[in-house]
Structure formats: structure tokens, C-alpha cells
Write a structure and sequence with these properties.
This protein is α/β, with parallel strands linked by helices. It is built from eleven helices and twelve strands. The chain has a single domain, classed as Alpha-Beta Barrel (TIM Barrel). Bound molecules: ligand PBG. The site of ligand PBG has 12 residues, from helix 6.
Length: about 325
């Protein structure tokens, strides 16, 4: 006779045999940064989540650090008049991203700083690459991305996170780092990044929605898993340090497969739409927000993610405390 319920009979035994556990140290905090002073503006499609100007970013970094969170992923919202097809502003050594990196490091030099590398926030077309005759061209984009990555490390970032899905960019960035003498700069590759509807609220946050067409010629078809594994293998070979799957909850099988088949740590991006769904249902009283948050993050960890980038990082850290 088997009595599997014995392992569920009390909190003590349940805790004793719990297979996976979420830790604050697993969580990475995405941050949206804007120009200005005294700006803390809520993103309407991401209730409770804000964009910060650099002065208020200081307080936010202090709070994040106090909660025991140890890594941040930076995104900037760029003024429309600074946008062009080549994302020229991305290379400005005094640009918003470069200054934001310095601010974070001033407040907490121990915090691991990762930066988004892609052209969309800087692109007049809202695409992740340079546009020519209505197409997103690969190799010219990769050149800019490599320069952008070097510029972030020069400003003091520890790692870059290329989210563009161009071919060959991990190898190009690794080579650029070697040539610049940045032998300890890390690369978290968005390896299996799908053309997902769940990025909608993020595009509101950065005003970065594509001006024409969609992102399906570079981001992947949600129906494919072998393709995701191939992309992750290429990134591992090209010199990535961590492989990311994005979004997270609808792609748990992809997280699991990449974790099993490859050797690098795996991260998952619990994206803006995934956050917004829980927030909206909770606001209506249809879901318990804390329970939905912890169950979601726990399932991403169980699937095999070593690291989870999530807009719930601070809330989850409070629960875990
Ligand atoms: C852009 C980028 C996106 C996200 C991270 N980097 C949006 C996109 O590809 O259109 C989405 C993150 C989220 O939805 O939380 N390179």
C-alpha cells in the first residue's frame, strides 16, 4: 500500500520534502529609467511599476539593496527627438543608459548591473535593428550592438543582455569585449526570445512599439522549441555566460529543455504581460496577488530557471523575508 499523502500531512513534512525553493538571490529587477528630475511615473499597463529619473533611481536602488536583491537589468526610455534609424544615441558616452549605470554603481557598487542591448528604444522605427527598404538588416545592426555593449561596460556595467535576436551578435560582442580588454564582462543572451504578445505593456513603458510590421523576422515563432534550443546552442558556442528564455510562463518547456541540454546557467524573463495579467486579475478580486505571484515564480524555478527577471522581484523579496 502506498500512502503518498504522508508527505503532505503537515507543514513540517511538506517543508522537509519541498523540491524547489525560491530565493531572493534568484531574482533580477528590471528598471525603467527616464530623463528629468523628481520623476516617478507609473506605467498604466503595469500597475505598481514605475519609470524613474536618475535622482529617484538612487532611492529605488537603496530600497532594492535593502531587500537583499543583488542584480538589476536596466532599460531606458529615450526622447523621441534622439531617435534615428541607426540608434546613434545608444553610443553616446553621456547617454541616459551610461549615466544610469554610474548612478547605480555610486549607490551600491556591489549590485550586479546588467544592461539591455538592442536598438528599439533608440530606433525611430521601434525595431531592434537597423531598417533598410522595410527590412531589419542583420550585420550592420550587430556592429552597432557590439559598440553599444562596449560602451555600457565602459560606463561601469558588469554584464550586457542583448535582447535583439540578430544572428551572430553574441560572438561579435564577445570579440569586441576581448579587443577592448574587458575580459570579465558577462553576457546574458536572450537566446530563445519569442515574438510574443506579452511584451505589450513593456512597449508602453518605453514607448518602443514597432512603427511598422512586427518582430517576427527576428524573434521566434512561439510554436517552436527545437529552434529555441538551436539559438541557445549557438549563443553558448559564441561565448555567452547565461542563456535566457523569454517570456517565462508560456515557455516552461523551453526553459527545461535548454537547462537539460546545455551547460550554462539559464535565466527566464517573467515579462510585462505576465505581470500585468496577475495585477489585473488581482485588482478585480479574481486572484490572490501574492499567491499567484509566488506560484508563478516557483513554477519558473521548478522548470529549471536559475535566475528570474521579474517585475515582482521586490514584492517576492518581501514575502521571502
Ligand atoms: C526589446 C525588449 C523587449 C523586452 C525586453 N527587451 C520588448 C520587445 O522585444 O519588443 C520585453 C520585456 C517585457 O515585456 O517585460 N529589445
Amino acid at each position: 500500500m502506498h500512502r503518498p499523502r504522508i508527505l503532505r500531512a503537515s507543514a513540517a513534512v511538506r517543508d522537509l520534502v519541498q523540491e524547489t525553493r525560491l530565493h531572493t538571490s534568484d531574482l533580477m529587477v528590471p528598471l525603467f529609467i527616464v530623463e528629468g528630475k523628481g520623476v516617478k511615473e507609473e506605467i498604466s499597463s503595469m500597475p505598481g511599476y514605475n519609470r524613474y529619473s536618475l535622482d529617484l533611481l538612487r532611492d529605488e536602488i537603496a530600497e532594492i539593496s535593502d531587500l537583499g536583491l543583488r542584480s538589476v537589468l536596466l532599460f531606458v526610455k529615450v526622447d523621441d527627438r534622439l531617435k534615428d534609424n541607426k540608434g546613434t544615441e545608444a553610443l553616446n558616452p553621456n547617454g541616459l543608459m551610461q549615466r544610469a549605470i554610474q548612478v547605480v554603481k555610486e549607490v551600491n557598487p556591489e549590485l550586479l548591473v546588467l544592461t539591455d542591448v538592442a536598438l528599439d528604444p533608440f530606433s525611430s522605427y521601434g525595431h531592434d535593428g537597423i531598417v533598410e527598404n522595410g527590412k531589419i538588416i542583420n550585420d550592420a545592426t550587430v556592429e552597432v550592438l557590439a559598440q553599444m555593449a562596449v560602451s555600457h561596460i565602459e560606463a561601469g556595467a558588469d554584464w550586457v543582455a542583448p535582447s535583439d535576436m540578430m544572428d551572430g551578435r553574441i560572438g561579435a560582442i564577445r570579440l569586441a569585449f576581448e579587443n577592448a580588454g574587458f575580459h570579465d564582462a558577462g553576457i546574458m543572451a536572450y537566446s530563445a526570445k519569442y515574438a510574443s504578445c506579452f511584451y505589450g505593456p513593456f512597449r508602453d513603458a518605453l514607448d518602443s512599439a514597432p512603427g511598422f510590421g512586427d518582430k517576427k523576422t527576428y524573434q521566434m515563432n512561439p510554436a517552436n522549441i527545437r529552434e529555441g534550443l538551436k539559438e541557445a546552442m549557438l549563443d553558448q558556442e559564441e561565448g555567452a555566460d547565461m542563456l535566457m528564455v523569454k517570456p517565462a510562463m508560456a515557455y516552461l518547456d523551453v526553459i527545461k529543455t535548454i537547462k537539460e541540454e546545455l551547460l550554462l546557467p539559464v535565466s527566464a524573463y517573467h515579462v510585462s504581460g505576465e505581470y500585468a495579467m496577475i495585477k489585473a486579475a488581482a485588482e478585480k478580486g479574481w486572484l490572490n496577488e501574492e499567491a499567484a505571484m509566488m506560484e508563478s515564480l516557483g513554477s519558473i524555478k521548478r522548470a529549471g530557471a536559475d535566475v528570474i527577471a521579474t517585475y515582482f522581484a521586490k514584492d517576492a523579496a518581501r514575502v521571502l523575508k
